[in-house]
Amino acid sequence: MDNRQVVLAARPTGLIDESTTAVVVAPRLECDKGEALIKVAMLSIDPTIRGWMDDAPGYLPPIEIGAPIRGAGVGVVVESKSDRYDVGDMVYGFTNWQEWVIASEENRFSVIPRGLGLDLATVMNVLGVTGITAYIGLTEIGRLRDGDVVVVSGAAGATGSAAGQIARARGAAKVVGIAGGPQKCQEVVELYGFDDCLDYRAPALARRLREACPDGVDVFFDNVGGEILDVVLTALAMHARIVLCGAISEYNLTERAKGLANTRMMIARRARMEGFIVLDYANRYAEVQGELAAMVMSGRLQHREHVVEGLEHAPDALNQLFRGVNHGKTLVVVDGQITLD
Amino acid sequence: MDNRQVVLAARPTGLIDESTTAVVVAPRLECDKGEALIKVAMLSIDPTIRGWMDDAPGYLPPIEIGAPIRGAGVGVVVESKSDRYDVGDMVYGFTNWQEWVIASEENRFSVIPRGLGLDLATVMNVLGVTGITAYIGLTEIGRLRDGDVVVVSGAAGATGSAAGQIARARGAAKVVGIAGGPQKCQEVVELYGFDDCLDYRAPALARRLREACPDGVDVFFDNVGGEILDVVLTALAMHARIVLCGAISEYNLTERAKGLANTRMMIARRARMEGFIVLDYANRYAEVQGELAAMVMSGRLQHREHVVEGLEHAPDALNQLFRGVNHGKTLVVVDGQITLD
Asked: Is the pTM of this model over 0.90?
């Protein structure tokens, strides 16, 4: 019942490496009144975790040196002194990178309904922050309308692939992805059903984007930032909406980003760019999860998971997000015995 | 009755010079049925005119080579074959850079009410696109709320000085300007009543901005773009709104702009950046002009005009906008005999 953790050993510059994190064994956790003890089953590996490692202002405080890496995950309640949780409940929240976690007033978990017929990996991907982020970003921030031309960067990724499919299901006239390499582009079209996918590593992205979207881009769902965002700024339709969901191209920069040179185009196009954090929409999670579950069960929301075994491999799994080698949602199994059935 | 014009002779690179424009004498204009002949009194010299000279996509088509430079102005109706205009009406619209212009179905003018007790220069500044742009930008795009901390770049300029004063009059808790040089900063505080003004030419703008706005910037009204915008992105309050009104730092660039490196901050701050063009709000001009006229007459909207005599000096007057030497709204007198009385 010791608690194995992956902690932040030092603040990284660029990608994390062996000196950045350490596996430690912390004492077993005790469950006080109003709390519950959770055995962690699986971790959600998200690009935003890298940002929390920097000593820089963000939407959450930086992870402290020596503390377990912050991150979402699921687990099962094994002991409860709280009215919120029953023993055996499967719960979702900030488990952080460790084997055990305490649910408390400060760290609340949501109970995952059983009987959906979906496995844990699917639930963590599509019904977790990934799917909810795609849904809220498109509808609330992007204000998707029938007939919109939607472009999604990081289209082969977990959030991007969901965003494109949600756009299609909710009335977009055309959905175009941007991804790295021919294999990912093929997957975006064939598996996720986008109309087209542009390889940003091939030449002349700006020209190809204008050809794919001759009437301009109404909604750009951006997971990447940097140069790809700058290119899309040159292809906006009037009153375009740019959803700043992530900036994966910038999370590991060791020098100043090259920067956006085309924001001036936003004036001519009366365009709007807006950032958001899905945590602000917690009161809509249940409603959105219902919509997403219906989409999955009817086959309108295809998804892939990249499952890594073992807590100690979580740092590598995070790095892989930035190397662009993974397909779909990256998850780390901490305890494979725990399932949703 | 010949029509002297300043035409676009060649597309400029960087600032315009003698080779870019030419003074020509065009044949006199004839007024057809449904039209009116207008003698031009004064031109409004606006940074956006420089953008129209480029062969690049914009919110209006590029000015054609050989055509008079496009621009707003006022004049008096001297002949009318239209129900819209009476002889003697003072009218505002796209006069372009010439002595005479025809009001037609395609080029409509608005009639300026007489009897306001304001001179022509004041009307062209505060009740023209300058004042209306400041008002619409702050209220519609910036969604100014009581208690907001408002920062304005180009604060000594015509639009910026109006924006800061309108913010103050409509409930901003604090209004901070950004301008170039101590003289302009002094003017922004003493004449226009801003709480503070930061000289962007002095070192450590980012630090001084954070000191001036310790709780962050709620609304940034940006006339400048480029590096100043990038600095303000580091000092946003939660749910900040950035009004992209202009990007005067970028209109004459001969190479790629350095670009924004800090858009990622917009995610953490849930911030919104939006461009707009005041021409889209023509149905609100009359209402806004009424509010602005009331502010001027009650002394809550101070203004300065920089008046240049002679149509042939309009190109120099435009260049001065980008050299940062002028104070207040730049106007060019084409016919000094015409007044509002």
From this structure: no
